[in-house]
Amino acid sequence: MRMTTFFTIGYEGASLRDFIDTLTEAGVEHVLDVRELPQSRRPGFSKRALSEALEEAGISYSHCKQLGDPKHGREAARRGDMDEFRMIFEAHLDLVASKEALEESANTVCRAPTVLLCYERNPNGCHRSLVAKRLLGLRSLQVQHLGVRSHVNKRTRAAAPAAVGHP
Predict the structure, then answer these.
(1) Distances in Å between the alpha carbon of 63 and those of 36, 75, 82, 94, 167?
(2) Is 167 part of any domain?
(3) Which residue from 46, 25, 43 is spatially nearest to 117, judged by alpha carbons?
(4) Over the stretch 47-69, which tens digit does the pLDDT of each residue have?
């Protein structure tokens, strides 16, 4: 039986163009945004702007608020208390609504090449790794953590300047 691969990615420090080029190179067809609040100070990464840019690139987008890190978990992570952060988020994932969201997400990653999106570049300090771990327990899946690479697809970029958007 062949395992389905899904991906995770964080956009910290990335331009929108490099982010989308990285997804395209990896063969991603769907972005599953697992930020509780899909807002960003980084241009192009708030929900509406991101979904529009992804659509232009032929990549679908959905947001799953329930799989986002709740405020008190984010606060613990900001303080550097990673043990408390993990405890809070693991308890959050045990909620009935979160288990339902995980099941839906597992179905999504089995239908199309999907990436779980959050902010942090390093997956080890991000709740998306805990979401990914739970998904691995639900289906025959494997996960690959992507890092946004600069100037991934120079040939496509030269052929279609500014088609995806600006950083």
Answers:
(1) 9, 21, 25, 19, 21
(2) no
(3) 46
(4) 999 999 999 999 999 999 999 99
Round to whole Å and give the CA distance between 59 and 144. Answer: 18
Token pair, residue 157, equals 């970029």
List the structure tokens of 138. Answer: 């639900």
Tally of domains within the chain: 1
Question: 6 with 113: CB under 8 angstroms?
Answer: yes
The per-type count for the chain, helices as H runs and strands as E runs, is 7, 5
Sheet of 114-118: strands edge to edge?
Answer: 60-63, 30-33, 114-118, 4-10, 141-147
Each residue's pLDDT tens digit, 87-129: 999 999 999 999 999 999 999 999 999 999 999 999 988 999 9
> Which residue range forms the structural domain that includes residue 27?
4-159
The pTM of this model reads 0.87
Instruction: Give the CA distances from residue 42 to residues 19, 82, 119, in Å, rounded to whole numbers and listed in that order.
Output: 12, 24, 10
Strand-pair partners of 62:
32
C-alpha 8/C-alpha 99 separation (Å) is 19
The answer to whether the beta carbons of residues 135 and 102 sit under 8 Å apart is: yes
CATH number, position 122: 3.40.50
Q: Is residue 166 part of a domain?
A: no
